[in-house]
Amino acid sequence: MDKNNFYITTTLPYVNASPHIGFAMEIIRADVVARYKRYLGYNVFFNTGTDEHGQKLFEASKSENISCQEYVDRNFLSFLNLVQALNISSDTFIRTTEDRHVKAAQEIWKRCETNGYIYKKNYEMRYCVGCESEKQNSELDENGRCQEHPNRELEIREEENYFFSFSKLQEKLLEFYKENPSFVIPDFRFNEIKNFVKKGLQDFSISRLKSKMEWGIPVPEDKEHVMYVWFDALTNYISTLDWPKETDSNFEKFWIQDKNNKREVVQYCGKDNLRYQAATWQAILMAANIPNSTNIIINGFIISGGQKMSKSLGNVISPYDVIKTYKPVTDFPEEVLRFVLTHEVANFEDSDITEDTIKNAYITFLQNGIGNQVSRIMKLSNGYLGNEDIEEVLGKVSEISFAKEYEDFLNSFKLNEAIHFVTNLQKKLDEYIQETAPFKLLKSEIETERENGKKILKNCLKELLVISYHLNFFMPKTSEKIFELVKNNQMPEKPLFGRI
Ligand SMILES: [Zn+2]
Fold first, then answer.
1. How close is the Cα of 150 to the center of ligand 1, in Å?
2. Which of 96, 203, 269, 482 allows an S-S link to 273, with CB 3.0 to 4.6 Å?
């Protein structure tokens, strides 16, 4: 039987700054899910990449006196490198300046236009360059500025633009939400977007005059306009699958999937993306007559010390810095970040992360937790167990399976609970060792006690394998290392997670 197909994507970060820890969290979470699905036997397509058009980049490149292309070619690298540094198992990395993407964005425009969802009109707007988006009254702060960018004056713009008929799709969107009761996860975000759509949708501008801002994908058959960055960028979720090639393509395999099976097209994003992913993108798909995504998973924000991270507050945590900090004490510094951004960050709510949070979690769960536990057990095992004992333990590997609870957490994208389940296994094993004291029994002068000590130690080894098994999607290298140490009955040459 053919395997089922599974598609998962992150949003694409904008390349005007270095990678945010929120992006690290998004790719790590999508990676955990992708690894889990592959393990279950799915064919997985896991997409990530970078968003490389729009006014902010246009301005930034100008201020550096280089071309937009040079600017994005330089900046996208720190995102690609992060994907690699975090051992993310993505199948592709799409840049919205690639030809395959440009062609797809133009094709989806044409389809929306042919189907009557794009028109041209004159209009005046208030525009936040920080968000690359038009602002309605309800979105402004008390000074009449963007709530996200209170230091930027809004621009007043008047021009002839192309518009997307968002309003026409209101009913269809609401119907779609009704038919797909778990479309947006978690529920409270789903309610938020339903209410937004119920209030009525406004058509929005999807083009910019090339004479004012040239850094965008050309509008088909109109040399004076380029596409608005959001309209182009959202298409990446299918351009990455070689759309518009609709048959014998990754698009057919991973987006359409076998109609007899349950489709699974999953998009991860932050809460600031709720509207774009759950409403705008879905409306564009409807307008172009393309099936919708099946789930949008909304992460909360990572704040630090009670405030949004910002350079001026000095509370920015760079994912690269975390890796650098932990490199001297462990061979797998990226797994410290993979651990912290799942274990210390709520599934869907905002979470506060400081350098201390990271350090405390490292000491409690990695250094004194799993790392210390592996050293202790393997030291005893190496000293008291022989090849036959190890073979006996390894013979039980096939009995190991995922706890039902753990699978339920992963299936519902509750990664925080899933990794806590693993650290609880570790804690229980510690308690078992304290209670049974194999380290005393193994040194006893009474043979039956020594035998009992060995039996307990073998239980500990098996339990270590269970922990390694459950840890695999979150910390693949640590997991493999534990398995290897047990298999070879070896003490680690140095602690897995040394003293910080
Ligand atoms: Zn803004």
1. 8
2. 269
Q: How far is the CA of 146 from the centre of ligand 1 (A)?
A: 5
The pLDDT confidence band at residue 2, using thresholds 50, 70 and 90, is: low
CA 381 vs. chain centroid, Å, equals 38
pLDDT at 485 over 60: yes
Query: How far, in Å, is the centroid of ligand 1 from the Cα of 57?
Result: 15
Q: Is the dihedral of CA 448, 449, 451, 456 positive or negative?
A: positive
- With a cut of 90, say whether residue 125 has pLDDT above it: no
What torsion do the CA atoms of 285, 288, 291, 294 make, to the nearest 10 degrees?
0
> Per-domain residue ranges for the chain?
5-299, 353-487
For ligand 1, the distance from its centroid to the CA atom of residue 302, given in whole angstroms, is 19
pLDDT in tens, 55-90: 999 999 999 999 999 999 999 999 999 999 999 999
Measured in angstroms, how far is the CA atom of residue 128 from the centroid of ligand 1?
5
Buried b (16+ CB within 10 A) or exposed e, 456-475: bbbbbbbbbbbbbbbbbbbb
Sheet holding 155-164, edge to edge: 133-134, 118-128, 155-164, 204-205
**Tens of pLDDT, residues 359-388:** 999 999 999 999 999 999 999 999 999 999
CA of 126 to the centre of ligand 1 (A): 11
